[in-house]
Design brief:
Among the domains are: 169 residues, Roll (Nuclear Transport Factor 2, Chain: A); 31 residues, no CATH class. The chain is 27% helix and 27% strand.
Length: 288
Amino acid sequence: MLHLRPMSLLGRTQVREHTGSYQTIQVNAPLGLQCLKSLLEEEDSRNPNRSKLSTTLAKDFRDLENGSERSKGREDIIELITSKHTRYRKYQTDLAHTWCITNANKTQTVLFEGIRFIMLQKDTEWIRIPLSGRIEVRSTVLNGKTSGEVIQRKVTLDSSGFWKRISELNSAPNPAKGGSQPTAQDTPRHELPGELSLSPGPGATKSTDEDDEEAARGLTALERLASKSEGENQYRDKQRSDVPANSGKYMNRKQQDQPTHAPTMNPSSYSYRQNEPRRLESIPCYPR
């Protein structure tokens, strides 16, 4: 529906108001509304006409989106429109309200607002993107007839629904991989068990070549660790056997009073670290 609303601005400005879809814009409508209709028809088309787009958009056409300082030229926009089918299954723009303002210099400014619906490839749900914008149109002569061409377009899009749908698709399980059961490739690396990292003990003297020989014999990391601990215990037992029994240099009074036989202990009270080497107490002993 088209309404004429004159506005007194220097006595030469008038506004045409249109409600409804762009398909209902008539051929006798102002040039600005006709250019907007031609542009949206090509954007929504499954097979956009490059020649018609070149006629609708001026050679010096500039496009700005969401207040960006970097604008796109005519060839960039034509390429985006003609290759749109590679990114979207369906594409549709529904206008809700349009105003065409005729300026004093005979150019026209078209303000519009509506909703753009898109469907991504391999998806079945529509994505709703509210939009509003404006185009600047100037009159030209084409094949002896007065026509119009778009010299600038500024549009603001609410892309929150688009990115929300992208996030949902990325987090959804892939049916090709067997449903929702995660595989080793799907699981983040930090959730997988890491390799056992072993550092040599204080009495270890084995070189890297010896470790390689043990690995070649098929010894596991735990077996190598037990072998190293057993060697350290034997070394410390030999040191203790060289010290006289009545010497107080390396034993304190409590150790001297201890019985020579091993105490009886409950096997269940043994710690999992019972094979680790024990450190000799270095507290000096003073004679009575």
